[in-house]
């Protein structure tokens, strides 16, 4: 019995070690999110502590000036024509920034090292001077940039996740953490079974030896055993084969589930368009209303793509020649070419061709969506589905546009019937039902021509 005890103890030790290891891995997995959150909080706090003292300007007043004069060449957190403005208060003092913004070329001509460095770094692109801005105006702009720069970065996929919550929780994908945890559980289970199987075999061997029955020792393998013979020997272990197949099935099943779930989902799709039209410039900086171009959104199923005649309402005169050394912008020239328009004589030719825009948002044929129902009746903003379109230099599909995403939106948003003529009939019918009166299809609009002749 002593030998059985020793053997059992030698086998139990690895089992206890494996169990402790699995518990440790599980504990570590639970601590990872907390550690990541703590590191993120520390990372966010560090720049805030290191940031320069807040500017004494008015950020609200600076925002208006910034959007009017700066957004065509600058952004807060990324380089456009000029550098990203975030952190400029740390890189340069306020007096230098005032001189630079008012007349950068005068500062460069004076030989200021910092001014010369910035000028040469950005290919000697001349920054527009703003002599009309007072010191207070520029300080307000600096205060606005500093305020925006100190804001925490939006979460990825937050392009966007306001509307989809943007995507949080709506994608339905199996997370890598879940998949890894499942694989870990299977491996631990396999190891535990192998250990227990070893214990049982060892006890059986000891019992047979006590009875005087010769037992062939496990693990005594011919030194000349080939790789094929090893694989063949292992293939006879039914438990090993079973769990290997189970693991492969789980891996393929998880991969297949993720692939099928995302079939037809084109979130983030950003094709290259024939004209580099900037929604950031038109909808963001110039504040052009979405429905000025997409006229069908409030009255039709489709929002519609504007004809080039709508573009010509402005670009018959606006040609951006100040940015191209007196030449007409290449993108505006594409409009003129498609319309066979001569900007010198202001006459149209006979060889007009439509612009071949690439469709971005595309629902399946079996899904019915009506823009006017959402825009006019529900009063939903374009950004609810299309994301921060006013900040997009190049448009991409912001929301997943899946059935789950639509259903969640319908569940979460309230219906406002007050002063909304669309719901007058619905409210009237509900009142009739409460009074116990008869409600016929005619009361519900069943006599309208469009109910049948659609």
Automatic annotation (TrEMBL):
Gene Ontology MF: a single term: metal ion binding
Parts of the chain that traverse the membrane: 177-200, 240-257
Keywords: Heme, Iron, Membrane, Metal-binding, Transmembrane, Transmembrane helix
One Pfam family it belongs to: Cytochrom_C
InterPro entries linked to this entry: Cyt_c-like_dom, Cyt_c-like_dom_sf, Multihaem_cyt_sf
Keyword Cell division applies: no
Cytochrome c domain segment(s): 57-149
PROSITE patterns listed in its UniProt record: CYTC (PS51007)
Presence of keyword Acyltransferase: no
Descriptive protein name: Quinol:cytochrome c oxidoreductase pentaheme cytochrome subunit
Organism from which the protein derives: Arcticibacter pallidicorallinus
């Amino acid at each position: 019995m002593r030998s059985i005890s020793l053997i059992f103890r030698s086998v139990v030790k690895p089992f206890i070690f494996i169990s402790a290891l699995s518990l440790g891995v599980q504990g570590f997995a639970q601590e990872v999110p907390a550690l990541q959150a703590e590191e993120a909080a520390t990372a966010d706090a560090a720049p805030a502590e290191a940031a320069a003292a807040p500017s004494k300007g008015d950020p609200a007043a600076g925002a208006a000036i910034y959007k009017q004069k700066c957004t065509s060449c600058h952004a807060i957190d990324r380089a456009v024509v000029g550098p990203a403005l975030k952190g400029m208060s740390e890189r340069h003092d306020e007096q230098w920034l005032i001189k630079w913004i008012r007349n950068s070329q005068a500062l460069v001509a004076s030989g200021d090292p910092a001014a010369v460095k910035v000028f040469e770094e950005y290919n000697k692109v001349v920054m527009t001077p703003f002599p009309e801005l007072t010191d207070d105006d520029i300080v307000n702009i600096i205060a606005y940039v500093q305020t925006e720069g100190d804001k925490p970065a939006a979460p990825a996929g937050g392009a966007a996740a306001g509307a989809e919550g943007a995507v949080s929780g709506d994608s339905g994908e199996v997370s890598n953490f879940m998949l890894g945890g499942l694989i870990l559980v299977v491996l631990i289970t396999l190891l535990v079974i192998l250990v227990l199987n070893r214990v049982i075999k060892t006890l059986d061997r000891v019992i047979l030896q006590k009875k005087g029955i010769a037992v062939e020792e496990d693990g005594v393998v011919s030194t000349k055993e080939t790789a094929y013979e090893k694989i063949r020997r292992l293939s006879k272990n039914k438990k090993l084969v079973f769990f290997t197949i189970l693991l492969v099935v789980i891996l393929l099943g998880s991969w297949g589930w993720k692939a099928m779930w995302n079939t037809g989902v084109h979130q983030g799709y950003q094709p290259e368009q024939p004209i580099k039209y900037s929604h950031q410039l038109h909808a963001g900086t110039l504040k052009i209303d979405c429905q000025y171009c997409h006229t069908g959104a409030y009255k039709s199923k489709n929002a519609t793509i504007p004809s080039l005649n709508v573009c010509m309402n402005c670009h018959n005169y606006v040609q951006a020649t100040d940015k191209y050394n007196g030449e007409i912008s290449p993108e505006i020239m594409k409009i003129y070419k498609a319309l066979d328009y001569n900007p010198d004589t202001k006459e149209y030719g006979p060889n007009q061709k439509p612009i071949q825009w690439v469709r971005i948002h595309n629902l399946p044929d079996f899904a019915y969506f009506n823009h006017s129902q959402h825009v006019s009746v529900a009063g939903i903003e374009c950004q609810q589905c299309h994301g921060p379109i006013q900040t997009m230099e190049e448009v991409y599909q912001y929301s997943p546009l899946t059935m789950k995403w639509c259903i969640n939106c319908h569940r979460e948003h309230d219906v406002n019937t007050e002063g909304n003529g669309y719901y007058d009939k619905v409210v009237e019918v509900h009142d009739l039902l409460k009074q116990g009166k008869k409600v016929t299809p005619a009361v519900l609009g069943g006599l309208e021509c469009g109910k049948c002749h659609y």
